[in-house]
């Protein structure tokens, strides 16, 4: 029911409000891109300056008549507002304009419904759709009688609404139960990765910043990537190998957008947990976007909602091929830590620098050292071999074993503790000078 969509190409009239406060301001260019991503045809764009929205229509009665004339003249099939409408405003506008009316949340939900590919993604979209629809059920039954008092005067409308509401509650409960199972399965997979001590690096960023293109470039995968908003909806995980670190899990996630509906964040919490549980976040930024500073703030706001704001982050400025005379580079803070990398994922510029920066940031917990062992420490040597930490070995002139080892610091500390060594003390006495 909820995934049946028109073939696309619907003629849409776009309505954008100016004059609202800065916190609620929307970007008209982004609005046009959203409509394009939904597959609709822009048949007209109406900008309305209004400082105080009206409770009945959001816009004034005169603008409603102007909009009605525009719909008729352009043969519009749907009117889309770049703002959130209340159920009553949506219903009143549909009655006046005699066509479907959609607000910003409904538009984003429609795009999500088109993009969902996996069973989990479809469940999450349907949950958000049902929640959005539950407050708008009445508009589908306005042609029926309302319930009246007295025998024989009870109309069918209220009964139908009650039935629909009950069915919605049942379906929402079923979806939540299935998503809880998905969340449990994700937790199990995450715990398995933690036991194997494989770092997880998650791509986050504003929609259409180039996350999927970068993901494909780093993993040689074939994740769908396109110049449109919300091209990627379902999370994808791939394993890559980094020098001096070894295996790393790279996760591609759904893009963020300003004023992302809170219910969508709630519905996609199972997916977004891949970001909130990551060892490192790659914040992918469109370097050529004039709104990049504002977009970065919106991403940080969503990360705050899912509890991921405190995680280590590496900023990745993408699309430098669209800038004039800009070379790939790593920028570091005063402590020498890589904090920003400038690349072009589509052109393949700076990917080696990015891999180097990722390795530096997630490799802090890896011990890579040349150590010397006495003959009496053969048991410790065997333990290094048992965990696959020995990269090479040779015998010194004095007959002692010289091992080139690389392993997780937790494993390193555990091995030394069994032999009664403190890690710092061991490295001071056993590191090859």
TrEMBL record:
Chief site of localization: cytoplasm
Keyword Acetylation carried by entry: no
Cleaved signal peptide residues: none
Keyword Metal-binding tagged: yes
GO molecular function, one term: GTPase activity
Compartments where located: Cytoplasm
The Hflx-type G domain, residue ranges: 199-366
Record: residues binding Mg(2+): 212, 232
Cofactor: Mg(2+)
Record GO cellular component, one term: cytoplasm
Superkingdom of origin organism: Bacteria
Coiled-coil features, chain-numbered ranges: 165-192
Gene3D superfamilies, sorted: 6.10.250.2860, GTPase HflX, N-terminal domain, P-loop containing nucleotide triphosphate hydrolases
Binding site for GTP: 205-212, 230-234, 252-255, 318-321, 344-346
Alphabetized UniProt keyword annotations: Coiled coil, Cytoplasm, GTP-binding, Magnesium, Metal-binding, Nucleotide-binding
Subunit structure: Monomer. Associates with the 50S ribosomal subunit.
Function, as annotated: GTPase that associates with the 50S ribosomal subunit and may have a role during protein synthesis or ribosome biogenesis.
Family the UniProt entry places it in: Belongs to the TRAFAC class OBG-HflX-like GTPase superfamily. HflX GTPase family.
Protein name: GTPase HflX
Species per Swiss-Prot/TrEMBL record: Halopseudomonas aestusnigri
